[in-house]
Amino acid sequence: MAYINVDSVKQRTFDAIVIGSGMSGGWAAKEFTGRGLKTLVLERGRDVKHIKDYPTTNMMPYEFEHRNELTYEIKQKEPVISRCYAFREDAMHFFVRDSEQPYVQEKPFDWIRGQQVGGKSLLWARQTQRWSDLDFEGPARDGFAVDWPIRYKDLAPWYSYVEKFAGISGNNDGLEELPDGEFLPPFPLNSVEDHFKKQLKAQYGNRHVISARCAHLSKPNQIHLDQGRAQCQNRILCQRGCPFGGYFSSNASTLPWAERTGNLTLVPHAVVREVIYDEKAGKATGVRVINSQTKEETEYYAPVIFVNASAFSTNQILLNSTSSRFPNGLGNDNGLLGKYVAFHNYRARITAEYEGMQEYATDGRNPAGGGYIPRFRNLHKQETDFLRGYAAGFRANRSMQEDTTGFGAELKKQLLNPTWGTWKVGSHMMGETIPKEESRISLSKEQKDAWGIPLLNIAIDYDENDNKMVADYHAQMEEMFTKAGFTNIQKTDSKQAPGLDIHEMGGVRMGHDPKTSLLNKYNQLHACPNVYVTDGACMTSTSTQNPSLTYMALTARAVDHAVSELKKRNI
Amino acid sequence: MNRRTAVKGLLVFTGGLVLLPSCLTREGKAFIPLKHLEVSAEEEKMLGEIVETLIPTTDTAGAKQLGLHKFTLKMVDDLHSPEDQKTFMDGMEAFQKMTKKQTGNSFVECSPQERQELIAAINSGKASKEVIDFYQILKKHTVTGYLNSELVMTKLRIYELVPSRYIAYYPVKASTKN
């Protein structure tokens, strides 16, 4: 090894290193820098500065070469990313293309990646629900995976903490399965969404439609204005990056906040090859990084390291961090690293029409997207032939429609004088999938990427439980739609590959026991406690709720723990 | 500056107006650059008249002035599969033959009355499958292009980039016009 210039080592030494600048990495950066720690954030993609680097944000539809559609050539060349709903002309610069960074699909898996400063926090669908004990107690009650080492009470104050800063709109609905929170005013349900809510309440009692809770500033508080953010302007062009900071992203919120402390060093184009483990010290001492542009290798050092590279990339980094102490990857004494990964089952949809509420439409746009139906299956006891359950989105939409049947002056008149169409209603499922040992990601033995890092090999599939859940969702929703008076009901099963849900989780799961889990209740690696994992990789099970808010809360809690442990010299 | 340079400069200056089109059309190709479709200038002109028949100039601009024939060609060239492109091209040829057979003229040479009659027949499904397939692709892009044009979005049916509101119960009369 080459001699290292001592001053240079000093320059490359920090109080904390955070790998990744997305949803959870941004929170780690904010929490560490806010507590006075000199923090290095490593991002493998390019820098994206809030507003300045949102090139399409104010473009009108006619300014896009193909009116925001994908070309045939791109769909052929980049089939996986082209399946992502948000990969369109207005936001394609924020996604990794298949051809740029290949991976091995042992089984079909649509790996949707956003590698830039801010990561996928720029692109997410912004749905934010707390998990309840019905989720955290799931594996123990139903006998799968391992018991979560935490319960709702451990996370509740941290949910409140991150909600207040991020800005979450919603109602306190008083539901056990969906704990209340610190909310900004909700985006209201429209007339047909309300109709469905009332029908379910009347006919079932225990099935609910609520205003979807989302990370939008419906009415900003001082803390949001202090971040430089403003009220959501209902554009629903979020995936382009929001010039108002109307929704929560690392770029608009946590990263500039961290930067203002003077304690943040942000290094883009930094591909982390591995976490460095010091055998003598018995802990991790830093990370080895390759500059994606120059391929130059650099080491950075810190007493504590947070791995927030996004669920699967975090697994990849740990699997690739080998030493004589950890020949199978950092912290991987039990061989479970990369196993028990899971995702959300989004295959099923149902649509219909409603002839009522002709006296109402909507005006403007709803960034929350409409209603949310919390899980109602197997909630308190097992009542079906499948494990767990599903949440569902529900929205009703009535738009102006133009008659396009004619031609000539008549057609022109028709196009310029649309009339209100009938109400369309639609729902999609978000099913909990069961983490299984055979659902795993591993490093390819043969193939390497442009930086010499083994490609990720992904082998994940649906199982019979998922198929039963799709069938049950269809049957239950059809019944509910029928009871609500909806007509022309259409059910679809997209059979989409896992991954397109963009909710991949696990591989570095939390648990009580080092023999059966990788992380403890504070997200520290059991076998290397100065390394924390708080992104999707840490998840023991998947719940039916969107996971991002939980990543944020886990991260803030873990940083609080790490700083306290550093002070006590425990790590 | 010598005379030679001055003349060259003059040519460069006027080039955009005079030289460029003649240069591009020397092989009779379409004015719009296409990667896959082989469309002649004559055909491009014909498409201009078809889209104008679909969405004519009234007190506001029609499809030809908005360039929706070129827009259609670009969309077919970039968004469609090779199979769909063939459907479009074959149908266009069939349309030309049909026009010639029925009127003795090309569509461009037809009177406005003849154009109306030709399109009316196709629009009501009275034509070969080939012609109808071509017509439907053309009409789809023309309508999309029109509704998504700057004219319509900024003047006729205003697109709001920044609505700044969501009204969940917006009262309307049944079947009211916007």
Strand content of chain A: 15-25%
Instruction: Determine the structural class of chain A based on helices, strands and strand pairing.
Output: alpha/beta
Uncertain residue segments of chain A? none
- Element order of chain B: H for helix, E for strand: HHHHHHHHE
Cα-based radius of gyration of chain B, to the nearest Å:
21 Å
CATH class of the largest domain in chain A: Alpha Beta
Distance between the termini of chain B: 62 Å
- What's the number of extended β-strand segments of chain A? 26
User: What's the helix count of chain B?
Assistant: 8
CATH architecture of the largest domain in chain A: 3-Layer(bba) Sandwich
DSSP summary, beta strand count of chain B: 1
Computed structural class of chain B: mainly alpha
Number of folding domains of chain A? Answer: 2
How large is the count of helical segments of chain A?
14
The largest sheet of chain B is: none
**Average predicted confidence as pLDDT of chain B:** 87
Instruction: Give me the Rg of chain A, rounded.
Output: 24 Å
Please indicate the percent range of residues of chain B in DSSP E strands (runs of 2 or more). Answer: under 5%
Stretches of chain B where pLDDT is under 50 for at least 5 consecutive residues are 1-26
> Looking at the structure, what is the overall shape of chain B?
globular
